[in-house]
Write a structure and sequence with these properties.
Layout: H1 2-35, E1 39-50, E2 55-66, E3 69-74, E4 77-81, E5 85-90, E6 95-100, H2 110-113, E7 121-131, E8 134-143, E9 151-159, E10 165-172, E11 177-187, E12 207-210
Parallel strand pairs: 6-12
Antiparallel strand pairs: 1-2, 1-11, 2-3, 3-4, 4-5, 5-6, 7-8, 8-9, 9-10, 10-11
Length: 211
């Protein structure tokens, strides 16, 4: 009986280890691919729901990335980052919030969306599945430090053939569920540095609030 239990536990832990090794290899390969791009542009859709608050938003987003710099639009809001400062622009409020760029901030930028597994998460391979007629790897992420993370869990859907992130579903501790789906990714295109500099003249009538 003891030998049988030992055998069963050995199988369980060996399978668990192999799943984690498999997911890490897939994520490492994807990270390496993303880091090889000098620039990229992506288009994505986002569905954000919170039953308790009644939130049910559907938004379309775009993002231009060059190194640590990015320019992103999300619905009627925009974020500009030159790698040192960020400017969060609200069309509804006609306001711009200027702050120091914080790499440890859990808020999503276009680059962080496509590399969010790299820091602060444990990963586990779930299964192969089909997403829009495409075979994808399904990988679960959970925060290493639960107390300090806003996330409860994240599920990634990564194209098996293209080695690209296609979808990410995120559960936050406050009950918010977010689903990001990448519809377009164009890499190594020419992007002028001026794209990532806030120009107040382009936002007449907006108030700038510095953190």
């Amino acid at each position: 009986m003891k030998l049988l239990l030992f055998f069963l536990f050995s199988i369980f832990f060996n399978n668990l280890f192999s799943q984690d090794t498999k997911s890490q290899a897939i994520l490492d390969k994807l990270s390496l691919k993303m880091k090889s791009y000098k620039t990229f542009y992506l288009e994505f859709s986002a569905v954000i729901k919170n039953t308790a608050s009644g939130q049910n938003d559907n938004q379309i987003g775009k993002g231009w990335v060059k190194g640590d710099k990015y320019f992103a639009t999300f619905g009627e809001n925009s974020i500009i980052c030159n790698g040192i400062k960020t400017w969060s622009i609200s069309k509804e409020d006609k306001s711009v919030y200027e702050a120091e760029n914080d790499a440890s901030d859990e808020s999503l930028s276009p680059k962080k969306l496509l590399t969010l597994w790299e820091k602060g998460f444990k990963n586990k391979y779930e299964k192969e599945s089909k997403l829009n007629a495409e075979i994808v790897h399904v990988i679960n992420l959970s925060p290493k430090d639960v107390a300090k993370s806003d996330y409860h869990s994240i599920v990634l859907y990564i194209s098996k053939t293209k080695n690209e992130l296609k979808k990410a579903t995120m559960k936050l501790k406050d009950g918010t569920n977010m689903t990001y789906s990448v519809s377009k990714l164009t890499v190594n295109l020419a992007i002028e540095d001026a794209k990532f500099i806030f120009d107040k003249k382009k936002y007449p009538g907006y108030s700038v609030i510095k953190d």
